[in-house]
Amino acid sequence: MSKRQIAESKCPNCGEPILWTTQSRGGRLPLNLAPQLVTGLNSGPFYLLNDFEMICTRADVGVIEAAIEKGGKLFTNHVVTCEKRERSAA
Questions:
Q1: Domain spans, the chain
Q2: pTM higher than 0.85
Q3: pLDDT for 47-82, tens place per residue?
Q4: Is residue 35 reached through a cis peptide bond, with omega within 30 degrees of 0 on the bond before it?
Q5: 61-70 long-range contacts, Cβ below 8 Å, gap at least 24?
């Protein structure tokens, strides 16, 4: 079984498929299973994923601009996009 298969899970709030990854700077982060086409209209943060090690790195401006120009896809943080997550009353 590959690390990606082990990392696949479902969000406990909405049931959408996610990938549990390790951030390059430490800590775990749930990414949406499928990368998203970056258009400049959608908001990040966006992440690059080392599929072999299941380590994600936050994409910098240069990577995001290149993805927009080339019609590339990057991963997004599921916590940010989950429609059923609990939001704090701020």
A1: 3-81
A2: no
A3: 999 988 999 999 999 999 999 999 999 999 999 999
A4: no
A5: 64/38, 67/38, 68/38, 68/39, 68/40
